[in-house]
Amino acid sequence: MLQLTRRGTGFTLVEMMVAIVILGVLLAVGIPNLTNWIMTNKARSAAEFYLDGMSMARRQAVTHNARSRLVLTPNANGQFDWQVDLCFPAPGAACTDDAGNWSTATAPAAGDPEGATGFKSVFRAANALPPSDVLIPAVTPEGTNVIYFTEVGWVDPTIADRLTQLRLDPAARLAGDVRPVALTVTLAGIASKCDPTVAAPDSRACPP
User: What residues form the membrane-spanning segments (predicted)?
Assistant: First the structure.
């Protein structure tokens, strides 16, 4: 009687080796492209991270009828963490950096009408943003890191040494995919994005 044998349905050693080689080629090509795509999207979204802080500082000043400030602090990857603080000045008093009357992340400001349940500073870390060798931040004027807002949401004009622009420039390897962007805050407290590489009357240009 003729007996038929059935060939196993698993991979042979040769087939497995071919599959491993193909997978290795796909990974070698795909992983760098995927990494670049992720980094590009992080760089493009960095401006929104800082705009959120600028807008929140103005909004909280108006909401609480208080002075507010946005403070940028360099972190380990060369970007800026940000924090929004509030201050409730007494009549005839000022909110100064050395007076210790600003809110913190753990306690409301002195004079907060809501007392111990009042506004606590909002902190956001920039750890998820690309490092500074990929996306290069620069502030104007150089060395500044704070924007101050009045109770009506306008920038406090009595403070000369205040941040007026934050610029983000991509590294050379991302220059074809990510455009430079700058974030500015008008005296009316409105934060917006602009293109620092173009000049007026182009509508994308940054204000003077």
Answer: 12-31
Phi–psi pair at 35, nearest 5 degrees: -60, -45
Domain ranges of the chain: 13-194
Q: How high is the pLDDT of residue 100?
A: 67
Q: Could you read off the pLDDT of 117-144 as tens digits, one per residue?
A: 999 999 999 998 888 888 899 999 999 9
- The amino acid occupying position 159 is I
Per-residue pLDDT tens digits for 147-174: 999 999 999 988 888 999 999 998 887 7
Strand order in the sheet with 122-124: 122-124, 80-87, 67-74, 146-149
CA–CA dist 40, 134 (Å, integer): 9
With b for 16 or more beta-carbon neighbours within 10 A and e for fewer, the 69-96 pattern comes to bbbbeeeebbbbbbbbbbbbbeeeeebe
The angle subtended at Cα 81 by Cα 163 and Cα 171, nearest 5°, is: 80
* C-alpha span between 190 and 187 (Å, rounded): 7
Write down the number of H helices and E strands in the chain.
1, 8
Q: Each residue of 1-29: b (16+ CB within 10 Å) or e?
A: eeeeeeeeeeeeeeeeeeeeeeeeeeeee
